[in-house]
Amino acid sequence: MSGGNLVLSAGKRDIHAEIRLTGSKSESNRALVLEALSDGGVKVENLSEAADTVTLNKILRSLVAETPITIVDVGPAGTAMRFLTAFAAVKGIEAIITGTARMKQRPIGLLVDALRTLGASITYAEADGFPPVNTHPGFRQQTRVVSIKGDISSQYITALLLVAPVLPQGLELEIEGELTSRPYVEMTLSMLSQVGISHEWNGDRIVIPRQPFIITTLTVEPDWSAASYWYAMAALAETSAISLPNLRKYSLQGDSRIAEIMANFGVTSTFVGNGLEIKKEPKTFVPKLFDLKDCPDLAQTVIVCCAALGHNASFTGLETLKIKETDRIQALQNELAKFGVKFTADGTTYHLDSSERFFPEKIRISTYEDHRMAMAFAPLALVIKEVEIEDYLVVEKSYPDFWTHLAQIGIISTEQA
Ligand SMILES: O=C(O)C1=C[C@@H](OP(=O)(O)O)[C@@H](O)[C@H](O)C1
Ligand SMILES: C=C(OP(=O)(O)O)C(=O)O
Fold it and tell me: Where is the active site (predicted)?
């Protein structure tokens, strides 16, 4: 990303807008892999504009174009890294899959081990257990049963499930221990069903026999993680009525839980014929414990919003945040401290103490190459006069129109020279 900063200032705290969100990055990335595996039998509509999706799309097309060896760069896209490793390994494509400096610190060893057990030939181009990975030709399935720990990243599990229908013997995937980010696995299984691939849960095992894809079109829903920032805006505004077309209550995306979470802060959700309307209503906050194990991408939105409102709360299910685009726990602690809020660990429970929070005239937020840091802290512009967001283009990873949409609610953005 190119490092410019953006200064945000809101003239007023009344928000009335209709925001058209791009498609879900998670659904899009799955759909693209299914499209590639089905040799085009599966088509995709309303693909996300997220940079991660654009990158994955380009790489999948280059990999199937059969050049002798390909070096491909996923940038900061974790799902692309994991999904492509499984795709290239099982298809027997010679490829080196690399990414940003941070991507080289995000573990992939469990997925590589599982793929090797299945019969894939994969080596590490640099450090063992981390990208870049080198996939080699000659996949020969050795077994249909493989186990993987469930509490590090559900993306490993999704990567394996997506390729399962093309494995000669199919797949019996045993999930060891707790399954984190479970709704993402459910999303994968639902999307597989939509393209004609059946599965069965057998205790802790997911069984997917080898099966053909049906010819069909997948339509990607708008991105609920992106919607979460609009909930935070609504919560911090004086009055708000935001309409988010095409979002559905019964979504494949676990981040639709934001509706229930934000009800605690007085944001109401009404599903109408063509989407969702959110409004701010008076509500007394009752301090509580939020478990975000199923929806880790909502953590920054909810924690920053809670801090800005001056509420105290506790959070669990944050273990995976340390291996995302940045160590999100550390990043939150650093940035919340800039307005007097403490975020401390007590074992695996985190306490947010906003009792000494204050609003300075100006605040400058570092974003740590993490799109969600930029978007989660941007709503502060509704309570702090000048909010400077470093490296603002970082949002392109999942939500390129974010700053344009902010302008729609009257938040003025000025680029810093
Ligand atoms: O499968 C997916 O699309 C995702 C799974 C989650 O990762 P983990 O399973 O690593 O928590 C989530 O944080 C990520 O943004 C997208
Ligand atoms: C964690 C995220 O993405 P990924 O793991 O795909 O890089 C995210 O979008 O918040």
Answer: 297
Per the structure block, which two tokens stand in for 55?
A: 């990158």
Q: Based on the number of CB atoms within 10 Å of its own CB, is 409 exposed (0-12), middle (13-18) or buried (19 or more)? A: buried
> What integer is the mean pLDDT of 127-138?
97
Does any domain span residue 1? no
Q: How far is the CA of 392 from the centre of ligand 2 (A)?
A: 17
Q: What is the mean pLDDT of residues 384-398?
A: 98
For the chain, the C-alpha Rg in angstroms (whole number) is 21
Structural domain containing residue 346: 6-22+221-415
Distance of CA 21 to CAs 94, 273, 319, 321, 403, Å? 37, 17, 28, 24, 12
Residue 162 belongs to domain with CATH number:
3.65.10.10
The total number of structural domains that make up the chain: 2
Residue where one domain finishes, among candidates 188, 219, 250: 219
| ipTM of the modeled complex | 0.99
Evaluate whether 236 touches 382 at the Cβ level (below 8 Å).
yes
Nearest atom within ligand 1 for CA of residue 320 = 11
- Which of 52, 154, 161 has most ligand 1 atoms within 8 Å of its beta carbon, as the pocket-test mutant? 154
d(C-alpha 230, C-alpha 241), whole Å:
10
Of 219, 242, 274, the residue at which a domain comes to its end is: 219
- The predicted model scores a pTM of 0.97
Q: Give strand ranges (E) for 80-186.
A: 95-98, 122-124, 133-135, 145-149, 171-176
Q: Is 297 a catalytic residue?
A: yes
